[in-house]
Amino acid sequence: MNILDIVCPYEAPMGAQEGGAPVGRATKSDVLVIIPAYNEAENLPHVLADLARCSSGLDVVVIDDSSWDETPRVAAELGAHVVSLPNNLGYGGALQTGFKFALERGYTYAVTLDGDGQHDCACIAALLKPVQAGAADVAIGSRFLGEVEYHTTWAKRLGMRLFGAVVARYTGRRITDVTSGFQALNHKVLTFFARDNYPADYPDADMLLLLHYAGFKVTEVPVNMRNRLAGVSMHTSWKVFYYIFKMFLSLFIIWLRQKTRRRLAEATS
User: Fold this and answer.
1) Which of 100, 124, 136, 217 stands 20 to 30 A from 177 (CA)?
2) Of 3.40.50.300, 3.90.550.10, 3.40.50.920, 3.40.630.10, which CATH number belongs to 3-268?
3) What are the residue ranges spanned by the domains of the chain?
4) How big is the CA angle at 77 (ends 73 and 79), to the nearest 5 degrees?
5) Is the Cβ–Cβ distance between 94 and 61 less than 8 Å?
């Protein structure tokens, strides 16, 4: 069953501005900005205002990952499409819902943007450029090629280096920012990820490995990243170590699946 069959757009209360039409397109834009959000009611007004200022004309959908705060109401009142999930699916599940939404509404490109204010919306045009030009299927915004206005924890830096080394080992190329969620994707990748190909909780290095094995072209674009405006990151305290464990497990499963496919192909050729 399609996940969009069991979720529905958020309905604003009487007297409030509804958050975009539940069906169809608000503009003639072929680009959809997808914002996964879990308890981001405090940050969304800043994020959506920044988006309207820097990239006006783009459609926006906020995927409310079963938040317990006012995330869906705030997003709807600010004019975004809102899809509220009945259960918390995690970051990856929320993004995949956004991909399905984009395909069903007929968008050609998508930009993934975090709802915490870390991603600079002024960089969206540069991120889209290689994808719209056909030079890449996916463009990843790299904080290490652009400007970083904050410093991560030592544990997250360790994870970045470890997974960066794994990706380089199996893809043959170096990706400077394997954990960046600031990305632009074309229609082929949207279709690929809308199926059962997208990591459920932390789509980072494992997503890059999937793209490599599927033959998609990935490029990096310098972007600016900032501190989270408010709230708590999903990569805090013990969660960082859980993330590292889950990522290694996911990478191993993807590698094993690819190795099995190669053996089957060789056996039947």
Assistant:
1) 100
2) 3.90.550.10
3) 3-268
4) 125
5) no
More confidently predicted of 193 and 234: 193
Cα gap 130→223, rounded to integer Å: 14
Q: How many residues are present in the chain? A: 269
Q: State how far Cα 260 lies from the chain centre.
A: 28
Q: Give percent above pLDDT 70 in the chain.
A: 77
Question: 223 CB contacts (<8 Å, ≥6 apart)?
Answer: 119, 120, 123, 126, 127, 141, 142, 143, 145, 146, 180, 182
Mean pLDDT across 91-111 = 96
Please report the pLDDT score of residue 5 as a whole number.
46
Residue from 94, 99, 97 nearest 111 by CA: 99
Q: What's the token pair of residue 115?
A: 């709802």
The verdict on pTM exceeding 0.85 is: no
pLDDT tens digits, 210-252: 999 999 999 999 999 876 555 555 545 567 677 777 777 777 7
Structure tokens at 267: 């056996």
Classify residue 11 by its DSSP letter: P
- Residue 174 tokens, joined: 């170096």
Percentage of the chain lying above the pLDDT 90 cut: 53
24: its two tokens: 């169809």
